[in-house]
Amino acid sequence: MGVKFGFEMEGIGKLLKDCRLSVPLNQRSYKWEQEHVTALLQDIDQAITNDDNDYFLGTVVLVQRDRE
Question: Are 48 and 9 in contact (CB under 8 A)?
């Protein structure tokens, strides 16, 4: 069975609401400190509050896993 790849344009709000995001154990060390995470979430919140039409986050790669 081959691996299937798909691409979708999703907003960060939908990802945060609908998905549990995590960094896989085989990923390189996650270098963000708590202050960086807080700053990112505050920035996203400000964009939502200001009703910004666009918010550039970059590419987010998601891997669907079976629920445990």
Answer: no
